[in-house]
Design a protein that fits this description.
The protein is α/β, with parallel strands linked by helices. It contains 15 helices and nine strands. The chain has a five-stranded parallel sheet, covered by helices on one side.
Amino acid sequence: MNGNPERKLVGPERRDEDAAEATLRPQRFAEFVGQRQACANLAVFIQAARARREALDHVLFVGPPGLGKTTLAQIVARELGVNFRATSGPVIAKAGDLAALLTNLEARDVLFIDEIHRLNPAVEEILYPAMEDFQLDLIIGGEGPAARSVKIQLAPFTLVGATTRSGLITTPLRDRFGIPVRLNFYSEAELEEIVNRGARVLGIGLTADGANEIARRARGTPRIAGRLLRRVRDFAAVAGAAAIDRPIADKALAALEVDGAGLDAMDRRYLSTIAVNYAGGPVGVETLAAALSEPRDAIEDIIEPYLIQCGLLQRTPRGRLITAHAFRHLGLPEPAQFGLFAAEEE
């Protein structure tokens, strides 16, 4: 069984998961757990913009998947009392797609673009004046003498961008966001609060130690905490348990191949590949992607951030290098030459 909570879902399974996630999403800042400073700052900026009856400055959310970027974008629109439109960078293929989105916005509306680092460069160029001057500069009539430039005035709006790869956003685009917000992994206590809230929303019986077991194995990520809660609920229901306690949660998560540190089968395969095949590293990410048959983006965005956070992995100029802690976690001996490489990188 594949316990990777970030695996790709398709068809009805994907729709069911999306519906379940939507049910658990907080609706207001008062309900949102974690990211306290970011939420407090956003609340101030929103209150000031509403008082001036102006569009909120453009917002950029940066952080690993599952930390609440989409949820916060929706809360921003709700707190502003305006419409919320959502799309993603790869969907906006040409200038006409962007024009259609922007011209349908009403004053002070929020347009959310997920994966904004994947915008087509030609589309991005047209977005600049839209963000700065609320104008669209379009060329119509094709190429040659018949071509002419047309300016379209837009209603003032707020662009909320989200990315897991801030380094791939061009400097001109990044500089046009007046409110950059970096989201961090959640603490165990915050995740316990999120799991308990999710249990109340879903009507699940949950003990304090059951909530703690799920929270500490949720990789610091609310989305994963919600998914693990729903899967553990299934095991508890089949077992006929009235409430989820630590033993039930532990048994269910073990069946899902999620270990005591929150690592799933793919995490352990990643670490084992470096430990066994490359003596702990360093090894390049492209080599790892080929060895694991996984895209580089999945490795960099989904697998590595939490391993780095846990102190199991280092990204070095020479490549990926696992730590002594990773060898201990895997129950493997350190290679004789490993200490030399580790000392070299420190």
